[in-house]
């Protein structure tokens, strides 16, 4: 996990709470750790775990974090501007994202949304980074109206345009479109007989992690290339315990696009002599 690597790099003490990749974190265990380690100052988690598509219960975790007087940071890289977020109701102190994800702008611009009072308080903290110091950036904005360092101007203009388009579509309408795409993905997978590895009630609604078939003719590379040559991309899985691939509901796509994709995926399976419905040994 990248957060662990960051803590190790900066020699920060940490507790790495692990849970099975296909389950939600046990909130009782989360509280137990906080109760037994009341010197914990900060808790970090992801909103949507993109490797599996699971949605973490950030509101409930945040409640426990605040109960024990810690700061709660949520990685919303893959949910911001897609799945509706209310940082106050969801008990979030800080969240972050990148322009190329939910906003569908250009890469090269990341941002943090957070508690202003906590940012001001951090002015007295040890400076572990110069370029990425959040208070220094905030203070420079407040005193000069400028970014602390030379900004990526073209990327910022692209983000400005993306924000205009986001608000033109509207938060609820955008999430409705992503949800329709997500449901279309499941409908297509069900029709072909594929299995996903995460219970559907635990999924974030933005991506599906699919088990490889138990078929001797299955080849991710061949299926990927066939689809890619016809305008569609499937992503390799990120789980080490199972062989998987991923389908995403992100971007400026609609359920019609997904239906067109499954026509191509069906062709890819037939061309490669993969049994339909998809076969699993268990």
Q: What does this protein look like?
A:
A hairpin with a 7-residue loop joins strand 8 and strand 9. The two termini are 30 Å apart. The chain folds into 2 domains: 2-167, Aspartate Aminotransferase, domain 2, CATH 3.40.640.10; 171-271, Aspartate Aminotransferase, domain 1, CATH 3.90.1150. Helix 2 packs parallel to helix 3 (58-67), helix 7 packs parallel to helix 9 (255-271) and helix 8 (220-228) packs across helix 9 (255-271). With 282 residues, the chain is α/β, with parallel strands linked by helices. The protein contains 9 helices and 9 strands. The strands form 3 sheets. It has a 4-stranded mixed β-sheet with strand order 1-4-5-6. A 3-stranded antiparallel β-sheet has the order 7-9-8, with helices on one face.
Number of domains: 2
CATH superfamily annotation of the largest domain: Type I PLP-dependent aspartate aminotransferase-like (Major domain)
How far the N terminus sits from the C terminus, by CA atoms, comes to 30 Å
| Number of DSSP-assigned strands | 9
Structural class: alpha/beta
Proportion of residues in extended strands: 5-15%
Q: What is the helical fraction, as a range of percent? A: 25-40%
Q: Please give the CATH class of the largest domain.
A: Alpha Beta
Q: What sort of overall outline do the alpha carbons produce when their principal axes are compared?
A: globular
Instruction: Name the poorly predicted regions.
Output: none
Strand order of the largest sheet: 1-4-5-6
- How can the largest sheet be summarized? 4 strands, mixed
CATH architecture type of the largest domain: 3-Layer(aba) Sandwich
Whole-number mean pLDDT: 95
**What is the CATH T-level topology of the largest domain?**
Aspartate Aminotransferase, domain 2
